[in-house]
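Inverse folding, one chain.
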């Protein structure tokens, strides 16, 4: 039992968690994890998604954060649950000022009256992990002071340990044959512990400011001081981005605001691979000149260069309405396993693509696409690697803000120039391109030299029924032909593939024709070279 794996003092919390889920109609789940604990409940099945959200809210900060993360995972939960988790509320009554003041004294080593010329005892906002107060530095700068609730770390650690034990139990059930629950629990614990360290949030803000140092349409607050439990940042004054009447009264261009807010996310994703993952209206302020001020850097996402390239490749095959290509790319990305029902998944994707066949980009909305993909992802257990799930939710949120500001807002139109630049970087040789080509060419050349003799030895050992020990060494004329054949075919295929990508990446551009001609000539050169060496 889970309880046997936990200290006795945590037994009551485990019972409380089980009791809340049973009361909300999830006794059948608890029964799977702990036989004898689950009980029947009268909650109608159609209301289970709602009750799942209510149960998480009732259980407190760790479970609220778990729900927020699960809301980005269409591979784990059906769409009805994802929609409910998007409504999770993380607002609770604030703590008394004296309690917060004691945390400030402990973290800053002095009375807050010494560190600030003034600080408002009434919080601006209060959530499960902490609350925010406005203040002013001795130099006159207006700041916000984010203070963590005392004792919240111990509460979080208790719940994380219980969740880890429950994940171990879940792995032994039939669900464990599909999902790696212990790994998920470990990833969640890592994310939540990072969010409990306000120094990390300060570093995130500094990194965003550095990444956008040359941009004039964005303001990132300055970090004045941080510790694990206190963060002091510049206060961004402005109009809340969804306060349409105030924006109209100020004379702001709502279309430009929508475009600027989208550029923030798209630039961060495709150029930097590091993006603000909580773009709800409360975190965006509009300043004069349609400049966007962004706040709260506790939740961020990151994409490696490879993940960004995979996204572009997925975009290209989707734009070509190539269902089989999409399946291949999903497998290559690790989103679908090699055992996935490729035919069934391909049919589902073909049906989705058919809905968008005759539509222009401005008639396609990210939220609609994501909502239609969710059921498919759940049925085929597609697991979005890295922070791609978080990215999907972020894009739908920022598109929602854009459409609210301007009904004609087109997220894909804003993204198109960034996509083209990334495709060009994929095609053009970069700093490490020559090294990669040389290393790859050496590897293929070595394989071509050693492969024939290795094949003979494998066949001989198979005939004698012996184990296989491969030693490759060959230098004859046939092997040289094979080497040149490998080089030429691989080089020609690569150049033709690059030409196809160029056609898709630069529609209508004169540059496209130049690139295609040059690449085609290169492919022809590869074939001529191979033929000459074959004759020799």
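Residues assigned per position:
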């Amino acid at each position: 039992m889970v309880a046997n794996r936990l200290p006795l003092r945590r037994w009551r919390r485990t019972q409380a968690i089980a009791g809340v889920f049973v009361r909300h109609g999830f006794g059948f789940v608890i029964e799977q994890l702990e036989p004898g604990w689950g009980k029947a409940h009268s909650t109608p099945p159609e209301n289970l998604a709602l009750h799942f959200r209510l149960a998480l809210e009732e259980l407190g900060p760790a479970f609220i954060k778990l729900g927020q993360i699960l809301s980005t995972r269409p591979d784990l939960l059906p769409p009805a649950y994802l929609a409910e988790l998007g409504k999770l509320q993380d607002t609770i009554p604030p703590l008394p000022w004296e309690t917060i003041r004691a945390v400030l004294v402990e973290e800053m080593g002095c009375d807050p009256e010494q560190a600030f010329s003034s600080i408002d005892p009434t919080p601006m906002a209060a959530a499960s992990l902490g609350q925010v107060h406005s203040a002013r530095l001795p130099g006159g700068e207006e700041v916000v002071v984010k203070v963590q609730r005392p004792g919240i770390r111990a509460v979080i650690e208790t719940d994380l340990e219980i969740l880890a034990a429950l994940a171990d139990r879940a792995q032994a059930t039939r669900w464990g044959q599909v999902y790696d629950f212990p790994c998920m629990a470990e990833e969640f614990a890592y994310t939540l512990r990072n969010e409990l360290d306000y120094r990390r949030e300060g570093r995130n803000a500094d990194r965003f400011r550095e990444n956008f140092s040359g941009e004039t349409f964005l303001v990132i607050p300055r970090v004045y001081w941080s510790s694990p439990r206190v963060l002091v940042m510049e206060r961004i004054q402005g109009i809340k981005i969804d306060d349409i009447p105030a924006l109209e009264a100020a004379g702001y261009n709502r279309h430009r605001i929508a475009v600027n807010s989208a550029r923030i996310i798209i630039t961060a994703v495709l150029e930097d691979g590091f993006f603000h993952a909580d773009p709800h209206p409360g975190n965006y302020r509009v300043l004069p000149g349609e400049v966007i001020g962004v706040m709260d850097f506790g939740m961020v996402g990151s994409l490696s260069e490879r993940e960004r390239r995979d996204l572009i490749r997925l975009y290209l095959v989707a734009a070509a309405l190539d269902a089989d290509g999409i399946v291949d790319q999903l497998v290559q990305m690790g989103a679908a396993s090699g055992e996935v029902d490729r035919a069934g998944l391909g049919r589902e994707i073909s049906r989705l693509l058919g809905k968008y066949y005759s539509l222009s980009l401005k008639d396609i909305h990210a939220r609609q696409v994501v909502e239609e993909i969710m059921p498919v992802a759940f049925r085929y257990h597609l697991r979005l690697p890295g922070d791609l799930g978080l990215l999907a939710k972020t894009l739908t949120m920022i598109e929602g803000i854009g459409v609210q500001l301007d009904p004609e807002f087109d997220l894909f139109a804003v993204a198109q120039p960034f996509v083209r630049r990334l495709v060009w970087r994929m095609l053009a040789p970069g700093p490490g391109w020559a090294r990669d080509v040389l290393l790859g060419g050496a590897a293929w050349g070595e394989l071509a030299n050693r492969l024939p003799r290795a094949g003979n030895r494998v066949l001989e050992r198979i005939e004698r029924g012996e184990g296989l020990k491969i030693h490759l060494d060959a230098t004859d004329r046939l092997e040289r032909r094979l080497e040149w054949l490998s080089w030429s075919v691989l080089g020609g295929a690569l150049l033709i593939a690059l030409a196809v990508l160029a056609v898709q990446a630069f529609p209508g551009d004169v540059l496209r024709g130049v690139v295609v001609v040059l690449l085609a000539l290169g492919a022809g050169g590869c074939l001529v070279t191979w033929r000459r060496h074959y004759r020799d």
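The radius of gyration is 28 Å. Residues 433-535 form one domain.
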